[in-house]
Amino acid sequence: MRKNIVAGNWKMNKTIEEGVQLVKEIKSLISEKQISSVQLIINPPFTHLSVLKNEIANSVIKIGAQNCSYESSGAYTGEVSVGMLKSIDIDYVIIGHSERRAYFNETDEILLKKLNLVLESGLLPIFCCGEVLSQRDAGIHFEVVRQQIENTIFKLSEDKFKKVVIAYEPVWAIGTGRTATSEQAQEIHKYIRNLITEKFGSTVASEISILYGGSCNAQNAKELFQNPDVDGGLIGGASLKAADFVQIASSF
Ligand code: PGA
Questions:
Q1: Which domain holds residue 195?
Q2: Which of 34, 128, 184, 226 has the most CB atoms in a 10 Å sphere around its CB?
């Protein structure tokens, strides 16, 4: 179901104590503002999930992990399985963040395995795609994103695909302070939605949430979110400050 979503990707930041404090602040700010038309999600590190799951109980906030293993169990030292995440009642899992692709060599093949495990467990993936700067400069960003999508989420059955949240994140905009313009975001979000129409039809395409990520902040969120094909944001740096995160969530 297409919804407006603002998801915070905390990356490798915050101790548990700091995380609890941040969630308390977010909760108190959202009780003051009218945030009814948006699904708020926090994606803290694995170590924080159980504690923060309790902290968000009885609030409108949902919780996701930033990653999961592509295997379901076994001798994979250091990995965390989807089953483990399900056992603590996690709602979402970010799959294919550009930092995972770049620093941990996650290929499309690995991402497809993760997507299937997540969906078969009843959790919801936030699937990331996006080009690097050299690809944007070479004018091949549409092609790059198309391939990332065709090799992964387009290999899912329609029933599974309908549950995916897509996050378009141009890598050159992540953590750089250089955001895509509102026009650039709309152009590629529309392109992605058209690809979905070609593959699964317009009804499915109209039901998928496509988020923008990359230096989205309290100042530029409104302009980005007013685009017809931008359904919210995946927020890194600005999700670590309660006031900014809540301001972004009230930007629809
Ligand atoms: P940023 O990160 O908002 O700090 O650019 C976004 C992301 O990596 O998801």
A1: 5-249
A2: 128
Q: From the CA of 11, give the closest atom in ligand 1.
A: 8
Q: Ligand 1 pocket: which residues have CB below 6 Å?
A: 9, 169, 174-175, 213-216, 234-238
Nearest CA to ligand 1 atom 7: 236
Give the pLDDT of residue 32: 73
With H, G, I as helix, E, B as strand and everything else as coil, classify residue 9: strand
Q: For residue 22, give the nearest of 58, 69, 61 by alpha carbon.
A: 61
Predicted local distance difference test score (pLDDT) of residue 36: 74
* Residue nearest ligand 1's atom 1 by CA: 236
**How does DSSP classify residue 154?**
G
| Count of domains forming the chain | 1
Catalytic residue positions? 97, 169
Q: Which two tokens stand for residue 218?
A: 């309290």
Question: Which of the residues in the chain have pLDDT under 50?
Answer: none
Dihedral pair phi/psi, residue 106, rounded to 5°: -80, 120
Average pLDDT of the chain is 96
In tens, the pLDDT along 78-101 reads: 999 999 999 999 999 999 999 999
Ligand 1 centroid–CA 95 distance in Å is 14
Compute, in angstroms, the gap from residue 53 CA to the centroid of ligand 1: 22
Which pTM was predicted? 0.98
Which numbered atom of ligand 1 lies nearest the CA of 215? 5
Instruction: For residue range 8-44, list pLDDT tens digits in order.
Output: 999 999 999 999 999 999 999 997 776 778 999 999 9
